[in-house]
Amino acid sequence: MAEERPVDIPASLVSALRGAKHVAVLTGAGVSAESGLPTFRDPMTGLWAKYRPEDLATPEAFARDPRLVWEWYEWRRGLVAAARPNPGHLALAEMERRVPRFTLLTQNVDGLHQRAGSQKVVELHGNITRSKCFEEEHPVESWPATGVPPRCPRCGSPLRPDVVWFGESLPAAAVSAAREAVETCDLFFSIGTSGMVQPAASFCHWAGARGAMVVIINPDVSNFASGSQVLVQGASGRVLPALLEKAWPGSGTIHVE
């Protein structure tokens, strides 16, 4: 088996991380994929192979067949529960402990960043482990163990996962927090994202326009325009521990329990 080549970490990035006053990070599905969680671009398997995520993750699909959508999310919740934070998640939690100010913006809904120890997390697309009322959208933490989907104990509406579906707006508070972080950081990372989903796809531009160093970490960086951006090709589970080790020797040894 061929030995993996060392990750090439630019010295300018190491220096910028050491001196950063506010680091903002955007993470996408690629980070969770390293923990074995399928992305929306991956074909589904088993009982769900005949469906497309785009056909299930919508308010219309839920209104049409709430049982089907709820059971699909229960399957996904099972995958999330079995997944473990990977070295990329753990390295970001360590980075947060090392810099004066840190904001983690994530498009992922699995909660793995929090399980890894990250504190300042802004969930742009919600969290699959939570549920809310379909009609009134108030959060619901517990409910009677009857019915699929279960009903809201307050108003009787069916419960749905607390995630952003296709055609829905991102939570206003999350968007506001993200914009503030992007516009005030001096170092911005985009990690494991496709760079195609708005408004997150604009974050790199906003941060760069305000003078922040913009860093793209992705196994495939060919879709990203370099320009003033720093492109680091590789999986976050390898790149981030290597970056930490260069910035703060001894901090990059990440153990997954």
List keywords for this structure.
257 residues; alpha/beta; Rossmann fold; SIR2/SIRT2 'Small Domain'; 2 domains; 6-stranded parallel sheet; 3-stranded antiparallel sheet; 10 helices
How would you describe this protein?
This protein has 257 residues and is of the alpha/beta class. The chain folds into two domains: 158 residues, Rossmann fold (3-Layer(aba) Sandwich), CATH 3.40.50.1220; 81 residues, SIR2/SIRT2 'Small Domain' (2-Layer Sandwich). It has ten helices and nine strands. It has a six-stranded parallel sheet, with helices on both faces. A three-stranded antiparallel sheet has the order 5-4-6. A hairpin with a 5-residue loop joins strand 4 and strand 5. The two termini are 25 Å apart. The model has no long low-confidence stretch (mean pLDDT 89).
Number of discrete helical segments: 10
Q: Estimate percent helicity.
A: 25-40%
Radius of gyration: 19 Å
CATH level 3 topology of the largest domain: Rossmann fold
Q: H/E series, N to C?
A: HEHHHHHEHEEEEHEHEEH
By secondary-structure content and strand pairing, the structural class works out as alpha/beta
Instruction: Return residue spans where pLDDT drops below 50 for at least 5 consecutive residues.
Output: none
Relative strand content = 15-25%
Give the biggest beta sheet: 6 strands, parallel
Name given to the CATH architecture of the largest domain: 3-Layer(aba) Sandwich
Q: How many strand units?
A: 9
- In the residues, how many domains can be counted? 2
Read across the widest sheet, the strand sequence of neighbours is 3-2-1-7-8-9
**Distance N terminus to C terminus?**
25 Å
Could you report the average pLDDT, rounded to the nearest whole number?
Answer: 89
Based on CA inertia axes, which overall geometry fits? Answer: elongated
- What is the level 1 CATH name of the largest domain? Alpha Beta
Q: What do we call the CATH homologous superfamily of the largest domain?
A: TPP-binding domain
